[in-house]
Automatic annotation (TrEMBL):
The lineage of its organism: Bacteria, Pseudomonadati, Pseudomonadota, Alphaproteobacteria, Sphingomonadales. Keywords: FAD, Flavoprotein, Magnesium, Metal-binding, Transferase. It is an enzyme of class 2 (transferase). One of its GO terms (molecular function) is transferase activity. SUPFAM superfamilies: ApbE-like. Belongs to the ApbE family. It comes from Sphingobium nicotianae. This is FAD:protein FMN transferase. PANTHER family: FAD:PROTEIN FMN TRANSFERASE, THIAMINE BIOSYNTHESIS LIPOPROTEIN APBE. Its cofactor is Mg(2+); Mn(2+).
């Protein structure tokens, strides 16, 4: 996934930490072999190369991610879309770097064979159908899913107290050894004037999307253009990191007004930071305000 993983845990004396680490790495390697658009041998890339009308059987992990991705795509009107692999490739945001902006004609061509409504997903058969030329990109949801998977893996090993992080997305289970919950500071762009916010991840996950690490890399799946709506970061706290990851991406695309309205409608715990000239605007959803209170 092009990033790091880190786990803090409360384990019994004599626990085989090296073995636990190897088990985690093996599980993550398996997810990468399925859902990475960087790995030409992945299941995702095999789907991308499949012919129009072909069905691709999915693993349980892949099916879970694509099912949730399509559900959030529908809920957001396509502000989140797991089928924009052609667009991310066009902008050089995948394994094929590019030093220029695509032309309007190139963007329209990529959009013409993209879109979540084109992808058929058979939940019972756990398979997806290639409409023809469509490429997947699960980078806005798979990392969050991997965080959940590692936490669930540790629980299966009898470790119920842990903080799992993959590239900034976190989930906290149980408590710290000192009896405190797992405290996490929400990411804040360094150029913004905003008070720090620390949250307790007690059976909760958090994911943040923004433009302060990789620049303006977020694409609007509906238009095929880079997002330039002033939103600098969106943090979402949720029971599962997979959903938090996808919602953070979607709300970044939707922007201040539309994103805030959807967050309220869906009861999401959200902090949104945006730039307004030299000013910084902070918006906290009612669900997050209730948690902080």
């Amino acid at each position: 996934m092009g990033t790091f993983w880190r786990v803090r845990l409360a384990a019994s004396t004599g626990a085989d930490l090296s073995g636990i680490g190897m088990t985690i790495q093996s599980r993550l390697d398996g997810l990468t072999s399925e859902m990475s658009h960087w790995d030409p041998s992945s299941l995702l890339r095999a789907f991308d190369r499949s012919g129009a009308g072909d069905w691709t059987p999915l693993t349980p992990d892949f099916a879970t991610v694509i099912g949730m991705g399509l559900a959030i795509a529908e809920c957001t009107g396509g502000a989140f879309d797991p089928t924009i692999g052609r667009l991310t490739d066009l902008y050089g945001l995948g394994p094929n770097p590019s030093d220029r902006e695509p032309t309007p004609q190139e963007t329209e061509c990529a959009l013409s064979c993209s879109g979540w409504r084109l992808l058929r997903y058979d939940r019972c058969e756990r398979s997806i159908q290639q409409p023809g030329g469509l490429w997947l990109d699960l980078s806005g949801i798979a990392k969050g899913y991997a965080v959940d998977v590692v936490a669930d893996l540790l629980a299966g090993c009898g470790i119920g107290h842990c903080l799992v992080e993959i590239g900034g997305e976190c989930v906290g289970r149980g408590m710290r050894p000192d009896g405190d919950p797992w405290w996490v500071d929400l990411e804040t762009p360094p150029d913004l004037r905003a008070l720090p916010m620390r949250v307790a991840l007690h059976q909760l996950a958090v994911a943040t999307s923004g433009d302060y690490v990789r620049g303006a890399h977020t694409l609007d799946p509906r238009t095929g253009r880079r997002v330039a709506n002033g939103v600098a970061s969106v943090s979402v706290i949720h029971a599962r990191a997979m959903e938090a990851d996808a919602w953070a991406s979607a709300l970044t695309v939707l922007g201040r007004e539309e994103g805030a309205a959807l967050a309220v409608r869906e009861g999401l715990a959200v902090r949104m930071l945006s730039r307004d000239g030299v000013m910084t605007r902070e918006w906290i959803s009612p669900a997050l305000a209730a948690m902080l209170g």
